[in-house]
């Protein structure tokens, strides 16, 4: 759309479509608001109508998170309302029923039993109606559920009291049991829904990170468009303080960007031309343009959200046990409650009312909910917390695996090290029989070497060129460039004949190292590759190039050792280089000269020794090893992260996240075990007490208190899971 | 009284055993107009039917017809297929996927109270 005539044309086209009641198009936001009869016309037809007049249209989907949240809040508001009504009505019922213990005059209230009945009816059949419909639905499916327990329990107390009220049987009234039970269960449900909402906050906050609009440069002008319309290749402008709308590469300008919400990196990251930017991160005070590379569902954030959603859809293997228990739980409880009644009434000869109360207490104390909530709430809280820190745990199985790990195997290149060789040393030689070559300083050696190497395509050449560029050295043009395969390069620079390469190249050119062999060896011993430099036939110096160790590597190895986990390094490098790196990071066990395809065999080898292995790699060329290990941890950096490999994905290039991930996984798993234990213990202890097994020692439970215990048990499980949020990572 | 009580307890135990035997309710999915194997499960107090049989390697469209609004049944999770779906109250929600590996997959609500099985042959 270019102008208001376009919007009018689209409006007209939409209004003419059969079934459309009204249509308005906003040229600035490029949004159409259409009211239509769903029976007569659908969204694709509307899209086609817009297309027919020469424009495009697509349905603007409401954010899943917003819809979900709105629905949850609506549910919670209804439950809260029902609870408050139940509270308001059950308190007078309780006073009418038991108030005589405080004020005897209560007994003289006229129509006391009828008043209680009238007050209890709305509690049962409005506040608690959902339990009866749930019970009925389960009954039709020939099964029973939580609602069955509450419906039978409260129904029994209510019906008995109704019979007494109508004079069909003689006895006491128990309306207050029915009313208070429903009030407590609703309170429990309300608190539980609140806590569950908190547990799933993490993914919602990830979804809300998404920018709504983007400024794209079209025909030389800035146009603000909805994010859904940004396509790959668009040039997007980001102003100070704005969100980066989609993933891409910086074209022009520079700024620092806060990426903490996606990667967990707490410090702002500097961005300039060529750097990758991540959608939904927040720009600092600079301004830049970038080319959109990934949009919509392809962005890193969308990938992370999908991954977390999938993780939250997974179950820990331990949960299957809980599920099996749950499947038989409710029918078993109903059977136990019946047996309780029969045992008290028929076998022990207790009065009918006492037996009935024990029956109701057993029904309402049983809480399969706590058992069912034990795992999902912990997984949702744990994975959500991880996602906010750039640690993506893919599900329950990863949690269980992390618990048992005793060895972490690190891939060297790109994992422990940066994976890019850089210039580490420039050594200049003079004297000792050799003339100082033209008075060359270290920077000169690097500058001239880089001048020669800018023509070479060898990976080490790039390191030297970058090294010179970092020092802002200006490179002269080389002449007579020659590449000598397997040995090095030669060229003439600034009138000097330059040789750069290994010992073989020097030997061929009859350049003597003049006793500097030991310097070369010392560098090689440190795992560095030495490039020898000769100028005009004389040995002039050494440029050492090496892959450097990440700052976090040593810290991570130390922290793992504190957790009782051994670190192993695996690499394709020779033993000398491998040992040098291992020494720097503090790793004792090294597997050197392992070809990429043999890495998984090395993992298998460790497993054969009875070790439970986690493998940490970049996820690109070590996917088989990641899959072979008990726990595969893929580590990436921002948009390059391989989200699909590994069971745990670390978005940030920080090896301490390996430690954090294992800690978080272990803590989450511990929560699951705690929850399951308490839920089981609660039921195993609570049901016999309610059944009156310990009546001999005076330990019995009124049904109302049993109901309160039930309501609080699921709330306590969810609250325990929420404590995970306090884990310091 | 004692004899009557004992008999009644035995009756309860027998009923429980009978329930264990009868609770399985199987329904094979039918290939529908879309070419997918389709089945509809009513979500009301339980999943009904609660056992669905499908063929491996062919698309499946499971429609959950949630006829209630209680929080418990709001999500359905299919274990092993990494599916967790929000089922809006009183609406039909269709989940589409293609199970590759034969086997038994349980689907449950968040608390494991509603349970069903997807048998992939």
Key terms for this structure?
heterodimer; A: 729 residues; alpha+beta; eight-stranded antiparallel sheet; seven-stranded mixed sheet; 18% strand; B: 121 residues; alpha/beta; six-stranded mixed sheet; five-stranded mixed sheet; 11 strands; 17% helix; 43% strand
Descriptive notes:
The complex is a heterodimer of chains A (729) and B (121). Chain A is of the alpha+beta class and 729 residues long. In chain A, a hairpin with a 4-residue loop joins β1 and β2. In chain A, α5 (129-140) crosses α6. Chain B has one helix at 2-22, and strands at 26-28, 30-31, 37-43, 47-48, 51-54, 60-66, 75-78, 83-86, 91-97, 103-108, 115-120. Chain B is elongated, with a radius of gyration of 17 Å. Chains A and B meet through α3, α5, α6, α7 and α10 of A and α1, β4 and β8 of B.
The residue-averaged pLDDT of chain B reads 85
Low-confidence stretches of chain A: 431-438
- What percent of residues of chain B adopt helix (DSSP H or I)? 10-25%
Summarize the amount of helix of chain A as a percent range.
40-55%
Write the layout of secondary structure elements.
The complex is a heterodimer of chains A (729) and B (121).
Chain A: H1 4-16, E1 20-26, E2 31-36, H2 43-52, H3 64-98, H4 112-127, H5 129-140, H6 146-165, H7 175-199, H8 201-208, E3 213-218, E4 221-226, E5 235-238, E6 247-258, H9 260-263, E7 269-271, E8 276-277, E9 282-283, E10 287-294, H10 300-312, H11 317-347, H12 352-365, H13 368-388, E11 391-393, H14 396-404, E12 407-411, H15 412-416, E13 417-428, H16 442-453, H17 459-470, E14 479-484, E15 488-493, E16 496-501, H18 503-508, H19 517-525, E17 529-535, E18 538-549, H20 551-562, E19 566-570, H21 575-585, E20 589-591, H22 599-608, E21 613-617, H23 623-628, E22 631-635, E23 648-650, H24 656-691, H25 703-722
Parallel strand pairs in A: 12-19, 12-21, 19-20, 21-22, 22-23
Antiparallel strand pairs in A: 1-2, 3-4, 3-5, 5-10, 6-7, 6-8, 6-9, 6-10, 11-23, 13-18, 14-15, 15-16, 16-17, 17-18
Helix pairs in contact in A: 3-4, 3-7, 3-8, 4-6, 4-7, 5-6, 6-7, 6-12, 7-25, 8-13, 10-13, 11-12, 11-13, 11-24, 12-24, 12-25, 13-24, 13-25, 14-24, 16-17, 20-24, 24-25
Chain B: H1 2-22, E1 26-28, E2 30-31, E3 37-43, E4 47-48, E5 51-54, E6 60-66, E7 75-78, E8 83-86, E9 91-97, E10 103-108, E11 115-120
Parallel strand pairs in B: 1-5, 3-6, 5-11
Antiparallel strand pairs in B: 2-3, 3-4, 6-9, 7-8, 7-10, 10-11
């Amino acid at each position: 759309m270019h102008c208001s005539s376009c919007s009018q044309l689209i409006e007209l086209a939409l209004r003419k479509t059969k079934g459309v009641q009204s249509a308005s198009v906003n040229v600035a936001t490029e949004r159409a608001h259409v009211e239509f009869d769903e029976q007569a016309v659908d969204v694709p037809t509307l899209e086609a109508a817009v297309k027919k007049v020469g424009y495009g249209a697509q349905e603007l989907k409401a954010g899943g998170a917003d819809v979900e949240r709105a629905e949850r809040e609506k549910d919670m508001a209804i439950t809260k309302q029902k609870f408050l009504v139940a509270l308001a009505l059950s308190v007078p019922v309780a006073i009418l029923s038991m108030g005589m213990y405080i004020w005897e005059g209560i007994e003289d209230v006229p129509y006391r039993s009828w008043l209680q009945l009238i007050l209890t009816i709305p509690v049962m059949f409005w506040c608690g109606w959902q339990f009866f419909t749930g019970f009925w639905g389960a009954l039709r499916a020939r099964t029973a559920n939580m609602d069955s327990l509450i419906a039978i329990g409260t129904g029994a107390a209510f019906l008995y009291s109704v019979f007494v009220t109508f004079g069909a049987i003689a006895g006491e009234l128990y309306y207050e049991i029915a009313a208070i039970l429903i009030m407590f269960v609703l309170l429990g449900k309300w608190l539980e829904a609140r806590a569950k909402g908190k547990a799933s906050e993490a993914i919602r906050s990830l979804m809300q990170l998404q920018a709504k609009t983007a400024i794209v440069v079209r025909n030389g002008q800035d146009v603000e468009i909805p994010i859904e319309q940004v396509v790959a290749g668009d040039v997007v402008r980001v102003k100070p303080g704005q969100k980066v709308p989609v993933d891409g590469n910086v074209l022009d300008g520079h700024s620092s960007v806060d990426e903490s919400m996606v990667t967990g990196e707490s410090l702002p990251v500097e961005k300039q031309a060529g750097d990758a930017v991540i959608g939904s991160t927040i720009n600092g005070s600079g301004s830049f343009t970038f080319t959109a590379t990934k949009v919509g569902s392809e962005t890193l954030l969308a990938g992370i959200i999908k991954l977390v959603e999938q993780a939250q859809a997974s179950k820990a293997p331990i949960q299957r046990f809980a599920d099996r228990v749950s499947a038989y739980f409710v029918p078993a409880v109903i059977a136990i409650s019946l047996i309780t009644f029969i045992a008290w009434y028929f076998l022990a000869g207790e009065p009918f009312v006492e037996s009935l109360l024990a029956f109701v207490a057993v029904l309402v104390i049983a809480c399969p909910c706590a058992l069912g909530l034990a795992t999902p709430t912990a997984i949702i809280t744990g994975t959500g917390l991880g996602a906010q820190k750039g640690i993506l745990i893919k599900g329950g199985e990863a949690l269980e695996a992390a618990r048992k790990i005793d060895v972490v195997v690190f891939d060297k290149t790109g994992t422990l090290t940066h994976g890019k060789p850089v210039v580490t040393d420039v050594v200049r030689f003079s004297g000792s029989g050799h003339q100082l070559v033209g008075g060359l300083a270290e920077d000169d050696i690097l500058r001239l070497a880089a001048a020669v190497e800018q023509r070479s395509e060898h990976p080490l050449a790039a390191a030297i060129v970058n090294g010179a560029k970092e020092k802002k050295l200006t490179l002269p043009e080389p002449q007579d460039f020659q590449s000598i395969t397997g040995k090095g390069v030669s060229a003439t620079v600034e009138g000097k004949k330059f040789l750069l390469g290994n010992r073989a190249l020097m030997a061929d050119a009859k350049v003597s190292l003049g006793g500097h062999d030991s310097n070369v060896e010392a560098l090689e011993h440190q795992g560095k590759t030495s490039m020898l430099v000769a100028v005009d036939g004389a040995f002039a110096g050494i440029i050492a190039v090496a892959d450097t160790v990440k700052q976090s590597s040593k810290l991570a190895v130390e922290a793992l050792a504190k957790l009782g986990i051994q670190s192993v390094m695996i690499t394709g490098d020779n033993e000398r280089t491998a040992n040098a790196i291992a020494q720097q990071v503090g790793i004792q066990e090294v597997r050197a000269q392992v070809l990429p395809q043999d890495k998984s065999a090395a993992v298998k080898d460790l497993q054969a020794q009875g070790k439970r292995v986690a493998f940490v790699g970049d996820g690109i060329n070590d996917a088989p090893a990641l899959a072979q290990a008990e726990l595969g941890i893929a580590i990436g950096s921002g948009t390059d992260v391989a989200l699909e490999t590994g069971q745990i994905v670390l978005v940030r290039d920080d090896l301490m996240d390996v430690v954090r991930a294992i800690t978080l996984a272990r803590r989450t798993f511990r929560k699951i075990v705690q929850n399951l234990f308490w839920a089981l213990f609660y039921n195993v202890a609570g049901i016999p007490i309610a059944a009156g097994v310990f009546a001999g020692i005076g330990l019995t439970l009124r049904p109302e208190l049993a109901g309160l215990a039930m309501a609080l048990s699921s709330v306590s499980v969810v609250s325990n899971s929420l404590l995970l949020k306090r884990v310091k990572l | 009284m004692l004899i009557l009580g004992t008999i009644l307890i035995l009756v309860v135990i027998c009923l429980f055993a009978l329930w264990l035997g009868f609770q399985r309710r199987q329904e094979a999915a039918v290939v529908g107009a879309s070419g997918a194997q389709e089945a509809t499960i009513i979500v009301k107090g339980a999943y009904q039917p609660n056992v669905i049989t499908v063929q491996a390697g062919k698309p499946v469209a499971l429609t959950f017809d949630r006829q209630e609004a209680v929080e418990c049944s709001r999500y359905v999770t299919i274990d092993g297929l990494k599916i967790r779906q929000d089922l809006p109250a009183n609406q039909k929600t269709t989940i589409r996927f293609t199970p590759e590996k034969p086997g038994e997959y349980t689907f449950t609500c968040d608390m494991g109270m509603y349970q069903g099985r997807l048998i992939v042959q």
